[in-house]
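Researcher: Quick test of sequence recovery. Tokens follow.
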């Protein structure tokens, strides 16, 4: 299995949550309770008179979930409510005598589950484990309430003489792509490991300020940069600093591309082309491919007053019946077209994909490159 289990927190949390639910649902059956009602019942027992809103805040629940569980506990006779004397909109919640007769057994069930889990942690490490778990929870609360996603920069090359022909450029690599090309060499960028160390956009901005006198421009590449929510505002910042930008895209995002062209946010575009239109889906790792957005991007670039080039990577699998003539017509407006041959590597999405034979590769180069 290629997934790195060591860092798969998402899956681990999911398994932990489902196992916990299964355990509690089974143990609580004699009380007609389920895992969902348990924390609510304990919160009420430990803070008699608590309100539903306070439960929402303490447990980070949505209101509907709390309302449903409070109603269920009331129907079972474990809790009751009374109107607040000071604020008629509020109801205070209390446990009933019935709850008090079973609560000791419920605490014991909780204690048993804790014991099961903690056998994996040596006693002396338990306090550290608990404080770290609390820190994870606090981070999760903050992050889950954060609306905007910062730019996910994966890597920064401070200086490159190759990324932008004729210029010394800084190169910023972002993560994530809407394709899953079998030939993609950026496996860890499109299947981002949970523990991947991303770069802080603030420190990138500082580095850009430090280097603005030494570099002739910035190249932004991916993954697919236009997937990043913060990209346009980042590009506007660069424009304010008079820093030229070359962007590499797969052409599937004509709207932000149009915005970049209208506002003069990019000075050069490199279009990553995957195949002719009939074979695009397979080369992009998709089941089907709608050529509409790509043809819109090509039209925008064709009408734009900036330089743009197209890069096509050929391989030994997905180009058997492809039509170089169709691609040449599609890319007629490009200033340059470059054809590169796939290299078989371990980092590739499909590590078995090989290069096109030399004769075929030369043919593609001759028919397309300019
Ligand atoms: S479009 Fe580029 S970055 Fe995205 S999956 Fe394909 S090769 Fe990788």
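Model:
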């Amino acid at each position: 299995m290629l997934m790195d289990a060591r860092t798969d927190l998402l899956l681990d949390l999911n398994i932990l949550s489902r196992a916990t639910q299964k355990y509690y649902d089974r143990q609580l059956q004699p009380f007609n309770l389920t895992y969902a009602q348990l924390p609510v019942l304990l919160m009420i027992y430990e803070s008699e008179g608590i309100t539903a809103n306070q439960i929402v805040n303490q447990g980070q629940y949505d209101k509907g979930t709390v309302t449903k569980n409070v109603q269920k506990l009331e129907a079972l006779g474990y809790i009751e409510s009374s109107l607040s004397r000071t604020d008629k909109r509020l109801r205070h919640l209390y446990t009933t005598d019935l709850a008090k007769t079973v609560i000791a057994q419920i605490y014991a069930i909780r204690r048993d589950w804790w014991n099961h889990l903690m056998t994996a942690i040596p006693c002396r490490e338990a306090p550290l484990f608990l404080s770290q778990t609390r820190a994870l929870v606090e981070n999760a609360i903050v992050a889950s309430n954060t609306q905007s996603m910062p730019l996910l920069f994966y890597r920064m090359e401070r200086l490159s003489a190759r990324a932008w022909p004729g210029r010394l450029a800084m190169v910023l690599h972002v993560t994530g792509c809407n394709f899953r090309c079998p030939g993609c060499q950026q496996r860890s960028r499109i299947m981002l490991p949970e523990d991947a160390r991303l770069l802080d956009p603030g420190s990138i901005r500082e580095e850009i300020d430090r280097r603005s006198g030494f570099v002739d421009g910035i190249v932004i590449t991916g993954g697919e940069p236009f997937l990043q929510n913060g990209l346009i505002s980042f590009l506007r910042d660069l424009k304010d600093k008079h820093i030229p930008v070359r962007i590499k895209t797969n052409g599937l995002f004509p709207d932000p591309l149009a915005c970049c062209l209208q506002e003069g946010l990019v000075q050069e575009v490199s279009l990553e082309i995957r195949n002719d239109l009939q074979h695009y889906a397979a080369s992009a790792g998709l089941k089907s491919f709608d050529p509409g957005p790509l043809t819109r991007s090509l039209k925008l670039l064709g009408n734009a007053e900036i330089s743009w080039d197209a890069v096509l990577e050929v391989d030994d699998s997905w180009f058997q019946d492809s039509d170089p003539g169709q691609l040449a017509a599609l890319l007629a407006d490009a200033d340059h077209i470059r054809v590169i041959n796939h290299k078989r590597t371990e980092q590739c999405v499909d590590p078995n994909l090989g290069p096109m034979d030399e004769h075929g590769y030369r043919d593609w180069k001759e028919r397309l490159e300019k």
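The first helix runs from residue 9 to 28.
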